[in-house]
Amino acid sequence: MIEQQDLPEYIERSLPELSGICKNADCKNPYDIARQMIRYTADQLRSKNLLAAKKCLTMADNLYNTGNKVIRNAIENVFVYSFSHTFFHDEAKRQSLLALLPANLYTIYKRQMVAGSHL
Asked: Residue 61: which of 14, 115, 93, 21 has the closest Cα?
């Protein structure tokens, strides 16, 4: 299980570019990191760097599957929750994201959308 204190090292090994961004943004917790992850993914999709976007999405999926409760909450409630605001108002970005999105993250997103429609 990945613990919060292990997260910077995990990101450094998995996606060094994001590690530098997190250091520059002075990320202090998994929620700050998740915010930088969604920004990074959006930037990569905008510049059509699908490989880098896919790496970040895969890393998020791995973090959700192996992270502790705080990390899982950050992925679910910051990273995945941001999909609607970041990607789905633009059809091209939406299609790009859906083509790359791991099934587990898509399931979480759909569950959030169903829950949100009952509010």
From this structure: 14
Residues 6+ positions from 59 with CB-CB distance below 8 Å: 11, 14, 15, 18, 37
67, β-bridge pairs? 2
Binned at pLDDT 50, 70 and 90, residue 46 comes out as: confident
Q: If we measure between CA atoms, which residue out of 118, 47, 38, 26 comes closest to residue 79?
A: 38
Report how many domains make up the chain: 1
First to last CA, the chain: 34
* Residue 93 pLDDT greater than 80, yes or no: no
Residue 58 structural domain: 4-117
pTM, rounded to two decimals: 0.90
Q: How far apart are CA 28 and CA 76, in angstroms?
A: 18
- Read off the CATH number of the domain in which 105 is found: 1.25.40
In 15-90, which ranges are continuous DSSP H helix? 16-24, 30-46, 50-66, 69-74, 83-86
Q: Which residue has the higher pLDDT, 15 or 92?
A: 15
